[in-house]
Design goal:
Strand order of the largest sheet of chain B: 2-1-3-4
CATH architecture of the largest domain in chain B: 3-Layer(aba) Sandwich
Number of domains of chain A: 5
Number of helices of chain A: 19
Structural class of chain B: alpha/beta
CATH class of the largest domain in chain B: Alpha Beta
Radius of gyration of chain A: 24 Å
Helix content of chain B: 40-55%
Shape of chain B: globular
Radius of gyration of chain B: 21 Å
Oligomer: heterodimer
Distance between the termini of chain B: 49 Å
Largest interface: A-B, 46 and 34 residues
Largest sheet of chain A: 8 strands, antiparallel
Bound molecules: flavin-adenine dinucleotide, iron/sulfur cluster
Order of helices and strands of chain B: HHHHHHHEHHEHHEHEHHEHEHHEHEH
Number of strands of chain A: 19
Number of helices of chain B: 19
Strand content of chain A: 15-25%
Helix content of chain A: 25-40%
Chain lengths: 545, 385
């Protein structure tokens, strides 16, 4: 490993001055190495030179001014959990800014329903705030570790529990405070006009927040982010739904379900029993798999549904009975690697009457679709395990254990009309490469777009497997682009495929904006802007032909 | 033991950061993370660092040693981690320490004194070991006793009030007990600072004198001693104590009826107490309920749970040599605990470990808090008066 520090020692001394001492500046090799990798298969071409932990905007500004003067790369970092290799340094090294000390809530405005937070404020912090101080609100929680940044997730077009209603999390951004690559501070959003009194929205101003959304920290650093808080309905209940045929679900009736406008949340998990072992208790997996198997075989559906209805009424623990009766239900377990689909749907309402009406509509719909609908209470003693997945933020299920520490994927937004095809093609590629298909999918914004994402768990020290993983990811990315989708939080290699596929005018304008904002290309180099001049020219030539 | 022994688990951590926060509570769990922030101070960062070192990506250095020893081995991260990595994290941290010592780079300078003292006088405080039971009457050394009370160095040399509280309680309960004249340090401060080889001699000696005694039960009032006698001797050296080893709180929980009788007629005004779970008997051994049971049975005590409790308890900061190696920081960790205890409105912060008690008291003084830091046995004794 090349461990040489590329920046001059005076720079490190200067950083110590800015951060008032040594405690929050480190160029120790073990620190640099730790910040130069992540859980994905991507390998950083270099090591970061120094890691700093600023406490406030002023310190961030001083760091940026110094870096810009010296043309040193800056890599913004919160938890490095983006799954796109987006906090990995390039061969230019640089200064990694870790925002964990900037974790404060700056403002909670109950009346105008927003919160202003620093970049280090996490989903765990937000959940705690809801649990302890502002229970009247909720937010869209991703299915990610709770210790990732709420603000940065929004800047990266995150997807979460309320996406079916509101779309990706950038829709919640009311305004930003940013430090530009040249060191100036800018206020973006309506609070810029009312001088910070109300951070209540972005419109009707020209939307300059867009200069930072989806930009992966390449155009500046957000130091404050205002996010909308959503009203929490008085009654909220999660249901688990087992559709009979996953492809039929994605191809057809999830879209009908969306049209009903009765669900506050819809999230889909599509994985084989083998994978589920780390996520749910064994009994539950066996049961789900068996139920699914029976449903999909179309045979005993009626008998089984009757039996299920009977079992649910029995006192005690329905799942215990199911386990008992399961030899009758299905003589054998379905194949360990055949994925089954479980859909989490949440219904919310402010009064019992409305709630009941919604549940009734959902039940009727499920009956028509021959799907099983299970309430958390039906899970008996397994309810907490079920809730740990339905009630976000979830603690990260045992994804790392499946193969050995590695986790990666290509996440994408695709047209709803092509999602079923995407699921089938991605699953095939994954299985062909000897990996597990673990799909986490969501309809977005009343079915205007759809999340297509297959999580790949791999052994992080198995070189051969890593090569298969890379091949798989590339295959998935090609499918995504082929069905009209776009990868989100795209890794540099995926960005390259994306720009190659797209109209070069988009990339050229984006690059123009970047060059204007960051003339010394210091902000998170190597990300997003991955086409060189020759490649751009080639594309232009191809497109004019 | 070194990284070779744990190599199988070094690549299992994916860095989800869950170990730094309490599951579904979201407050911080890891003292080292809370203070230092940089990834290699955290559980995940240390595991990644261990993998780098095992793969020879870079050389060992003093800064690496600093990160390894700035961890209290409290084990909170292992409770929060839902992955395989968590199950092996403590083994990995211990392996890092042991390898640092093997390489002549660890432990921290101040921690080296522990070995010097123990080699000289069989205890880490440097006092002559003859003074261990200097003022103890001969009647407490009894070859026919049913129960051995292993006092431990901290109670014997520093926090003597604990020892002085335990003896009358045992007497009042009519327990036929004995101290061990030849008791030496259990070795915990050496084992937790990576100097486990040097502690073998102590383990062999203690196991021998305990096993030679005819008693059927050993009780310890120090959480660190308890864990060492009960779990570490066998795990580290394959040495087994052939008696039941109990913490005093467990022993008293079994004698609750008799204990309750002793309080009879002793009317007391209601006072609020909260309880700090020492890592060594809590997370490491699984004793959570017994101290609460005993505490709850004390007349005049209203027990209120502290915010982070049981296996989520915030470490007091004294463990794994941190109190000796990084004095000021150890107290800083404890200050968080004092503030948390104050939020309960309690008069007493009760512990079951003299080492925790001492550090909590230092933090209490640093904060000018009026909280009374007290061991469970001292509180019982007080209420028996
Ligand atoms: C198992 C798992 C499941 C996940 N599931 C979901 C999911 O369902 N939905 C979802 O939306 N996400 C999901 N994620 C992604 C993750 O939750 C985050 O939301 C993520 O994208 C941000 O992660 P982070 O806070 O670690 O930021 P980092 O990874 O540290 O940073 C992300 C990017 O933001 C930049 N950045 C950091 N700080 C700043 C700043 N102050 N200003 C400007 N740029 C900055 C970085 O340079 C980088 O480009 C998942 C992740 C994992 C590991
Ligand atoms: S040790 Fe466990 S909880 Fe911590 S980052 Fe690693 S896998 Fe996640
Ligand atoms: S053992 Fe305690 S101090 Fe050490 S890493 Fe784990 S939680 Fe942090």
């Amino acid at each position: 490993m090349q461990t040489k520090i590329l920046i001059r020692s005076e720079i490190i001394e200067k950083l110590k001055e800015i951060l008032h001492g040594e405690q929050y500046v480190s160029s120790d090799i073990e620190v640099r190495s730790n910040y130069s990798r992540d859980m994905t298969e991507q390998v950083a071409p270099g090591l970061t030179d120094v890691v700093v932990l600023p406490e406030n905007r002023e310190q961030v500004q001083q760091i940026v001014l110094l870096a810009n003067r010296e043309k040193i790369p800056i890599i913004p970092y919160v938890a490095g959990a983006n799954i796109g290799g987006l906090t990995l340094p390039t061969e230019r090294g640089g200064i990694t800014i870790d925002f964990k000390r900037m974790r404060r809530v700056i403002k909670i405005d109950r009346e105008n329903k927003y919160i202003v937070v620093e970049p280090g404020f996490t989903f765990g912090d937000l959940r705690r705030l809801f649990d302890t101080e502002i229970p009247e609100f909720r937010y869209s929680f991703p299915f990610s570790p709770p210790y990732t940044s709420v603000g940065i997730n929004a800047l990266l077009h995150g997807l979460g529990s309320l996406s079916v209603l509101y779309g990706s999390a950038d829709n919640f951004i009311n305004g930003l405070e940013v430090v530009l690559p040249t060191g100036e501070i800018a206020q973006l959003g309506n609070h810029a006009i009312n001088r910070g009194e109300y951070w209540y929205g972005r419109s009707p101003l020209p939307d300059l927040c867009g200069l930072f959304i989806g930009m992966q920290g390449t155009t500046g650093i957000a130091t404050k982010i205002s996010l909308q808080l959503l009203d929490r309905p008085e009654i909220l209940t999660h249901f688990a739904i087992l559709p009979k045929d996953p492809l039929d679900f994605f191809g057809d009736w999830v879209h009908d379900l969306d049209k009903l406008h009765i669900c506050d949340e819809i999230g889909c998990g599509y994985f084989p029993p083998k994978v589920a072992h780390g996520l749910l208790p064994q009994d539950m997996i066996d049961l789900m798999a068996k139920l699914m198997f029976m449903l999909s075989k179309g045979r005993n559906t009626k008998i089984m549904k009757k039996l299920w209805a009977f079992i649910k009424k029995l006192p005690g623990k329905p799942f215990w009975y199911v386990k008992k009766f399961s030899p009758i239900l299905a003589r054998k377990l379905p194949p360990e690697d055949e994925p089954f689909l479980i859909v989490g749907a949440t219904i919310g309402a402010n009064n019992k009457k409305l709630f009941k009406a919604k549940v009734k509509t959902l039940k009727k719909f499920m009956k028509k679709k021959e799907a099983l609908m299970i309430r958390p209470d039906d899970f008996g003693e397994l309810k907490p395990a079920m809730m740990s997945i339905l009630d976000l933020p979830a603690q990260l299920p045992a994804f790392f254990d499946l193969k050995g520490g590695g986790l990666t994927w290509v996440g994408s937004y695709v047209p709803p009309s092509r999602v079923a095809e995407g699921v089938e093609r991605c699953k095939e590629i994954i299985m062909q490469n000897g990996l597990f298909p673990i799909g986490v999918l969501r309809p977005m914004k009343a079915d205007h777009y759809f999340v297509l994402r297959f999580i790949i768990s791999y052994n992080s020290i198995d070189k051969e497997e890593i090569e298969r993983v890379k091949k798989t990811l590339r295959g998935i990315c090609e499918v995504v682009l082929d069905i009209g989708g776009v990868p989100y939080k795209m890794a540099p290699w995926a960005a390259k495929l994306t720009w190659e596929k797209g109209d070069i005018s988009f990339y050229k304008l984006l690059k123009k904006v970047k060059d204007m904002m960051d003339p010394n290309n210091i902000m998170n180099p190597g990300k997003l802007f991955v086409l060189n001049e020759d490649e751009i020219k080639r594309k232009e030539a191809e497109e004019t032909q | 033991m070194g990284l070779e022994d744990v190599k199988e688990w070094l690549h299992y951590c994916g860095r989800c950061n869950s170990c730094n926060y309490i599951y579904r509570d979201y407050r911080n769990s890891c003292p080292a993370f809370t203070k230092f922030f940089f990834e290699p101070f955290t559980s995940s960062g240390k595991i990644w660092m261990a993998l780098d070192l095992y793969q020879g990506k870079y050389d060992w250095s003093p800064s690496i040693v600093e990160k390894i020893f700035s961890c209290t081995l409290c084990g909170n991260c292992t409770v929060q981690c839902q992955q395989e990595a968590g199950k092996h994290a403590l083994e990995i941290f211990e392996a890092l320490r042991e390898e640092a010592v093997e390489r002549g780079l660890g432990p921290l300078e101040a921690q080296k004194k522990i070995l010097e003292y123990i080699n000289e006088v069989d205890n880490p405080y440097g006092d002559p070991n003859e003074n261990r039971f200097k003022s103890v009457p001969e009647e407490y050394f009894n070859d026919d006793a049913d129960v051995i009370y292993y006092v431990g160095c901290t109670s014997a040399f520093r926090e003597t009030q604990l020892f002085e509280a335990v003896i009358p309680i045992l007497q009042k309960l009519g327990v036929n007990f004995s101290l061990l004249k030849e008791e030496v340090c259990c070795g915990s401060p050496l084992i937790t600072t990576g100097q486990f080889k040097a502690a073998r001699r102590l383990a062999e000696h203690n196991v021998k004198i305990i096993n030679e005694h005819k008693a059927k039960t050993v009780i310890a009032s120090c959480a660190g001693c308890l864990r060492t006698l009960k779990a570490q001797y066998e795990k580290k050296y394959g040495l087994k104590i052939d008696k039941e080893v109990l913490h005093l709180s467990e022993f008293l929980a079994r004698k609750l009826r008799a204990l309750k009788k002793l309080y009879k007629g002793k009317k007391k005004p209601i006072e609020i107490a909260t309880y700090h779970d020492p890592c060594h008997i809590g997370r490491h051994v699984g004793i959570f309920e017994e101290p609460r049971k005993v505490l709850n049975s004390i007349p005049g005590i209203e027990f209120v749970e502290i915010g982070r409790n049981r296996d989520n308890a915030w470490c007091c900061g004294a463990g794994a040599g941190v109190k000796i190696g990084l004095k000021e920081w150890a107290v800083e960790i404890s200050e968080d605990r004092i503030k948390e205890a104050e939020e309960t409105g309690a008069k007493y912060l009760v512990s079951t470990c003299p080492f925790c008690e001492r550090n909590l008291r230092d933090a209490r003084d640093a904060l000018n808090s009026s909280l009374e830091i007290i061991d469970l046995c001292q509180l019982i004794r007080k209420k028996l008066e």
